[in-house]
Amino acid sequence: MSALLEARDLNVWFDLEGGATLHAVQGVSFSLEPGERLGLVGESGCGKTTTALGLLGLLPSSAEVAGEVLFRGEDVLRGGEESVRPHRWVDVAMVFQGAMNSFNPVRTVGAQIVEALELHGLAEGATARARAGRLLESVGIPADRARRYPHEFSGGMRQRAAIAMALACEPSILIADEPTTALDVMVQAQILELLDGLCRDFGLALILVTHDLPVVAQLCDRAGVMYAGEIVEEASVETLFHAPRHPYTRLLFAATPDLHDDGAPVASIPGAPPRLDRPLVGCPFRPRCDRAFGRCADERPLLKRLEPAHAAACHLNDVPAEVPA
Amino acid sequence: MRGADYVIKRTGFAVVTVFVAVTLNFLLFRLAPGSAVSNLSRVPHATQETRLALKRQFGLDKSKPEQYVIFLRELARGNLGVSFENSQPVIDNLKTDLANTLPMVLLGTVFSIVLGTLTGVIAAWRRGTAVEHVTVTSALGFYSMPTHWLALMLVILFAGWFPSGGRVDDFLINPTWFQHVKDVLYHMTLPALTLALVLYGQYTLIVRSAMLETLGEDYILTARAKGLRPWTIVRRHALRNALLPISTLIALSLGYIVAGAILIETVFSWPGIGRAVYRAVLERDYPMLQGAFLVLTLSVVFFNLVADLVYFKLDPRITT
Amino acid sequence: MSVALQEPGLVEAPRPARRRAVWQVIRHRPSAVIGSTVLLLIVLVALLAPLIAPYGLHQEVGPVFGHPSWSHPLGLDDGGIDMVTLLMWGARISLVVGFAATLVSMLVGGAVGVLAGYFGRTTDVVLMRITDYFIAIPDVPLMIVVAAIWGPSLFHIVMVIGLLLWTSTARVIRAQVKSVRERVYVQRARSIGAGHVRIIFRHVLPQIAPLLIANTVLTIAVAIFDETALSFLGLGDPSRISLGKVIENAFQRTAVSSGAWWAIVPPGALVAVLILSCSLIGQALEDALNPRLRVAHLSARRFRLRPLVGRGSEAL
């Protein structure tokens, strides 16, 4: 049986002014089972948002895409925009960053939810409006707020409304791109709880894109760590925290202050990610890696399966004598 | 009512601006060097009584500040003096002239707004393609042509097909209402076309710019993610939002069309307010010049207020 | 809560002076290249007019409205003077007025914009109120009135055009200055006690320079147009021949009914070309410098698909 969603060797190039191209996503593959929660973690600029957008074909015209995105075994990218559009919102829905204007400022929030319902033929007119109201209630917003405009909502409420709108067509997968960024701490917790509950109640699969590790720990079962456009390690969240097999993962999770471990130094990773508008030689993480050796400069490590549910792209895993940190 | 204070504030601002404009008018004309300009009673071919009456009416022998007050008072009464040229009250002349200008300007403006919006949307939609380059370049081309020169070009081009001057055919005797209207429209074609071509370029650029900005907004991405078809997104989301800056800019430009009308009406001898300005300058008819200038300034203020109110109506975010 | 990852290089460094940015933009856009080249050409010809004009400016070389011929490619005007010569000399005056008026407008508008944007609060409110009143005055009628009342000299014309065009500059500059002022390095300069003047000249001006240039170029276009309009209405400086005056002469002396199109079409076409060149440059700059015009979530062109090349990732 094929997975619910599968990305195979996804590549994205962006045209830059002056003729160069930026290789933003370099061969990303992963799969998602129904109800599963996958995190896509990484620094800003590592390609995780681009990957998420690429899954739904939401990239701009300056982008070039290669690879396959299989929804229930069917490649939705193959026919371009026309083949992917029917799947938007009804199969895979998206929630964007909290700071973004997900809503059109000159139309009411309710009207925009109704738009989703009517577009995909799930309801019309008064029925649609009633459903929109119920959707808002399910995320904790009074139904009569549907007649309000987006600027009349607080940041947290707007985000909840965006989640309500995403669920309007009962998708099987929800992609959340930095859903709690730029929100207050208290509101963040509420949104996360909401997502947790909704995914559980509706059996949604979740792809959570974020740079915020504790969020991943709270919501996700598995996560893929992205660096310089590719996945460098993929495993259960537990494993990534306690037994990572890639130096970047290790340093990443070490940079997270542990509430229970006062006094432990908070590390940060010196240096910067590599430029993606030039071809890379060797391992992209080598300049910042504390365990790099000879082979790392010449050969790019491939993502290798180490255990049934654990893959990593690091030469250290090939050297039997090395005990991974 | 939502934003009642916004409406009041903007109207208040308009009123103050009117006041400033009127004062400027007074300063320009009464404080000019020499009395030829400032003396409204020097109407040639007028009787001595008329002159004395005017002198009294406008208090021309009193001090400047007193004159200013009297000026305001007479203005409120609709008394702008008497034209040097035809010895008629300025206000009556202006009324006729304005009535002649408006239909012509309206025709040209409506046409150019429709055409400009169409081409602007297409140019923004097909960004980066040859279509966009051609559209933008042609819009810039028309925008660059001096109004009066374009008018002359059209006269040369259409000589013999359309009349190149005047508003009515002097040789048409006792026309029926229908014939008269047809005659006027016939004469109105070239002037309105000139205006339309000059404005269309400007509007295309405005619409394109507004659309491009709108298409980069986040909610457009959301609309796409929802599965809406591109053209639906353009129509329902982008255009609706772009209407905000577009309508403001159009309303603002309406106030300045009167300036362009001066040049057009001069070329085509169209008896409107633009040509009234031209002739007033030629004949040194200062009362008319003052009156016409006032009307033009007030129309700009009026259209600016309209622009504010339209924006207010379209944008639900404005509450104060 | 965002413990996140230390973003390397989070501290914002001041961006290098944007002079190079303007040059880059112009170089890479064909429309700007064409505009610049044409403009430079015309300016050059105008500058060298006394040297390269084929005939004298007041030299009668043939009949009134003489037809175009080999020796006079653009014919003669209503005084029997060679049109090509007229165009060259006319361009000089038109350009002088255009540049001079723009200079006035830039100085006033730039100053108002910088002061309003930099100092904010009361200064901002007062200056913007004044600007709003100025905007409400229609320029062409005011120019007409001033020229009619105070006499049509070159100086009056330049001043009146300049004093009406500054408003758009002021607004644009003010918006830019406001955003620049909030940048980290400006705050830092303030905190170490740098004076306002120093900050304005060293930090603010270089950042707003590109937009200022774009605005300047567009203002030149409007100034040239305004001059032709004034001349056409008989309010130009009678002692100078500008391109607008050439058109006016032709119109007054019934060139149209005489069929002497060469007296009307070339001068206006030259003005149009001048304005178009400036507009192309200004438009290209504005397009490039407006960050909001760069991102397009939606356009007719879609993302492209590349056939799978098969880069191996052996796992999974």
Overall description:
The complex is a heterotrimer of chains A (325), B (320) and C (316). With 325 residues, chain A is α/β, with parallel strands linked by helices. Helices cover 29% and strands 23% of the residues of chain A. Chain A has 10 helices and 12 strands. In chain A, strands 6-7-8-3-9-10-12-11 form an 8-stranded mixed β-sheet, with helices on both faces. A 4-stranded antiparallel β-sheet of chain A has the order 2-1-4-5, covered by helices on one side. Chain A is globular. Chain B is built from 12 helices and no strands. Residues 1-17 and 309-316 of chain C have low confidence and may be disordered. Chains in contact: A-B, A-C, B-C. At the B-C interface, helix 1, helix 6, helix 7, helix 8 and helix 9 of B face helix 5, helix 6, helix 9, helix 10 and helix 12 of C.
Biggest pleated sheet of chain A: 8 strands, mixed
Number of strands of chain A: 12
Residue share in helix of chain A? 25-40%
Give average pLDDT of chain B, whole number.
Answer: 83
- Radius of gyration of chain A over alpha carbons? 21 Å
Number of helices of chain A: 10
The main sheet of chain A orders its strands as 6-7-8-3-9-10-12-11
Q: Share of helix among residues of chain B?
A: over 70%
Stretches of chain A where pLDDT is under 50 for at least 5 consecutive residues are none
Order of helices and strands of chain B: HHHHHHHHHHHH
Beta-strand proportion of chain A: 15-25%
Regarding quaternary structure, how should these chains be classified? heterotrimer
Which structural class matches the secondary elements of chain B?
mainly alpha
List SSEs of chain A in N-to-C order. Answer: EEEHEEHEHHHEHEHEEHHHEE
- Would you report the number of β strands of chain B? 0
